[in-house]
Amino acid sequence: MRVLAFEDTYDIEAMLVAGGVDVETMTLQQRWNSNDALRHIRSFKPDVLLLDHFMPPMNGLEVLKRLLASATGRPGTIIAMSSEPSMNEAMLQAGADDGVIKFDIATLSIWD
User: Fold this and answer.
1) Of 1, 15, 35, whose CA–CA distance to 111 is shortest?
2) Where are the alpha helices (DSSP H) in the chain?
3) Per-residue confidence of the chain (112 residues) as pLDDT tens digits?
4) Given 3-state DSSP classes, what are the helix, strand and coil percentages for the chain, each rounded to the nearest 5?
5) What b-and-e string marks burial along 94-108, b requiring 16 or more CB atoms within 10 Å of the CB?
6) pLDDT at position 73, please?
């Protein structure tokens, strides 16, 4: 599984490991800002895209809207993972497949 995370503060791999997720079964790449987000999505071709909302220079909702409006291939699963529930809800309404508070990212069933 190829996982691309856009998160500017917390190490997603460390959070998954701490939550008991076997990261050896995935190729995980983390981008610490949203510069050239669509280019990174297009080149990495993730199966799972994790989007934080509060991330410079574009927030997760902007990245999601631009992705879905572009010719860039849509990842199989898009997860909104903001620490703010209302931002996850906004990304769900815009087309994300699931939303979770980022500190609970390891609890998602996609890792099973």
Assistant:
1) 1
2) 12-18, 37-44, 60-69, 85-94
3) 999 999 999 999 999 999 999 999 999 999 999 999 999 999 999 999 999 999 999 999 999 999 999 988 899 999 999 999 999 999 999 999 999 999 999 999 999 8
4) 40, 20, 40
5) bebbbbbebeebeeb
6) 87
| Tokens 């199989």, residue located | 76
Which amino acid, 37? Answer: A
Single out the residue of 92, 29, 104 nearest to residue 60, CA to CA: 92
**Which helix (H) or strand (E) covers residue 31, if one does?**
strand 27-31
Strand partners, 6: 31, 51
Return the structure tokens found at 96. 């994300």
Please tell me the predicted confidence (pLDDT) of residue 105. Answer: 97
Distance CA 36, CA 45 (A): 14
